[in-house]
Design goal:
The complex is a heterodimer of chains A (282) and B (187).
Chain A: H1 2-26, H2 35-49, H3 54-63, H4 67-76, H5 86-100, E1 106-111, H6 117-128, E2 135-141, H7 144-152, E3 154-156, H8 160-169, E4 180-183, E5 186-189, E6 197-201, E7 213-218, H9 227-240, E8 241-249, E9 264-268, E10 273-276
Parallel strand pairs in A: 1-2, 1-7, 2-6, 7-8
Antiparallel strand pairs in A: 3-5, 4-5, 8-10, 9-10
Helix pairs in contact in A: 1-3
Chain B: E1 7-12, H1 16-23, E2 35-39, H2 48-56, E3 60-63, E4 74-77, E5 83-86, E6 92-95, H3 107-118, E7 122-126, H4 135-143, E8 147-151, H5 160-168, E9 173-175, H6 177-186
Helix pairs in contact in B: 3-4, 4-5
Classes of the chains: A alpha/beta (282), B alpha/beta (187).
């Protein structure tokens, strides 16, 4: 029993040191992530890589650069759905889009885009609403492999039924099958969907403001952060939004604990869509 | 050492509503521990459990929100389609990581993180269910010195989940729902 609790403490020390090594050597900073999920993902990585301890994993990480992308895969890659939570996209379509229509040009930031499901959902929605041509979409992530996957836009065919159902429930005006070609068990989304997309490496932990956005969508990314880091990200979003710009977050996320919450007003409360206050407080 | 309990975690699957109805409403005001519950539900049945039990229970019932500080005498349900975890600072966190044993929320994910956070001060309860979720998590709780309780398989609506938990943790206490209710009230 006391041996066991000693062991657990050692594991916690090792994890802290591993995250410090990842930061010092490669500048990926997970030190302010929510630790319970990080621990779980690291345990999974350690087991699947067949490495006995986190100290040994740290040794490999520091001396073998090939270990970095493998570990980042475990730490960051997120499998999502297109139009996950269709009611969110319905609210964007019905309540945010009418405001966006009044602007001659638009900037949309999908922060933490992972493999692109949320990005393609928004591009398709904007095309259906006739806004795509005046919009630049910025899709950012810290993981290069994820960005490459997002840029490729290829998903397993067995997920398409769910995507299609979600798209329909979100008020989709077209058929999702208009946007992809199926072959060899995969669905490849049309390159034309990417013509106004800029893919870019950006970290919510360490990078700066991304200017003058009309809409930022960042769903189920901040749940992996601790409160301090959430607060930084929310401040960054506030500073990156244009006056009266919109911020959409995950359905179980909240701005409630943030020191920046006063910069936002509820826009569609039940879908966690917020609007930035204008500078005059209105 | 460590006999003073700080939290209860419960996992249930097929037959969960009936089993939890035998346990949660009998917890009376003044009950000091938080109760954190994972129930397997179809993803589209949003918030059903918290609403359902709010009407039945005298304790406060909430659907867990990200970064919620864990409050005494409160029952938390994992939101559908998210994993629920306990952080070392005794706050709740959510994740969209892949399902574990086809389940999100996963009982193992809650139990393993709670075992890390609470060590020997945790009570884990595995109830009725038709898969093996919870077995690894309950073992983690017992390995940390916590208490493991399992609904007796013969009294469960679906016996597979309690059977798997008992197989992984032979020292867990098999109890009927009535006995579990009495145990929790006395804690």
């Amino acid at each position: 029993m006391s041996d066991r609790s000693q062991l657990e403490k050692v594991e916690d020390i090792e994890i802290r040191l591993l995250l410090e090594a990842l930061f010092l050597k490669y500048h990926y900073d997970f030190r302010n992530y929510a630790m319970a999920s990080i621990k779980r993902r690291l345990r999974q990585a350690r087991q699947q890589l067949g490495i006995a301890t986190f100290s040994a994993l740290q040794d490999r990480l520091l001396h073998d650069p090939d270990m970095l992308p493998r570990l980042l895969g475990y730490l960051t890659i997120q499998v999502s759905e297109m139009f996950r939570d269709p009611s969110y996209f319905k609210a964007i379509r019905e309540q945010v889009v009418p405001h966006l229509r009044t602007y001659p040009s638009l900037k949309v930031w999908i922060a933490g885009c992972s493999e692109g499901e949320e990005l393609y959902s928004l591009v398709i929605l904007f095309r259906e609403e006739g806004l795509e041509d005046r919009t630049i979409f910025y899709a950012t992530d810290i993981n290069h492999q994820a960005l490459e996957a997002a840029e490729a836009g290829v998903y397993p065919l067995d997920r398409i039924q769910l995507f299609t159902e979600n798209h329909r429930k979100s008020g989709g005006r077209s058929s999702l099958s208009d946007y992809y070609q199926a072959a060899y068990g995969r669905a490849r989304f049309d390159a034309s969907l990417r013509r106004n997309v800029v893919f870019s490496d950006h970290s919510l932990v360490s990078d700066a403001v991304f200017g003058e956005m009309n809409l930022i969508s960042c769903r189920n990314v901040m749940i992996y952060f601790d409160r301090k880091l959430q607060d930084r990200a929310i401040g960054l979003f506030g500073d990156s939004l244009s006056r009266k710009g919109f911020l959409g977050i995950g359905s179980k996320e909240t701005l409630r604990f943030s020191s920046h919450s006063a910069a936002f007003v509820d826009f569609v409360r039940e879908e966690k869509i917020y609007q930035r206050r204008s500078n005059d407080g209105g | 050492m460590g006999a003073e309990h700080k939290a209860i975690v419960i996992g249930a699957s097929a037959g969960a509503v009936e089993a939890l109805t035998a346990l949660l409403p009998s917890l009376r005001p003044g009950f000091r521990l938080p109760v954190i519950v994972v129930v397997h539900l179809p993803a589209d049945r949003r918030s059903a459990m918290a609403e359902l039990f709010r009407a039945k229970c005298t304790l406060e019932v909430r659907e867990a929100e990200d970064k919620d500080p864990i409050a005494a005498g409160t029952i938390y349900f994992a939101p559908p389609d998210y994993h629920l975890l306990v952080e070392a600072d005794r706050t709740l966190s959510l994740s969209c990581d892949a399902p574990v044993l086809f389940s999100r929320p996963s009982i193992d994910v809650l139990f393993e993180s709670a075992a890390d956070a609470y060590g020997p001060q945790l009570v884990g309860v595995v109830l009725t269910g038709a898969n093996a979720d919870g077995a690894r998590g309950l073992k983690a709780i017992i390995d940390e010195g916590g208490i493991g309780i399992v609904q007796t398989p013969s009294s469960a609506f679906a016996s597979a989940m309690p059977e798997a938990a008992l197989q992984a943790s032979p020292t867990a206490k098999p109890l009927t729902l009535q006995a579990i209710a009495a145990y929790l009230e006395d804690i």
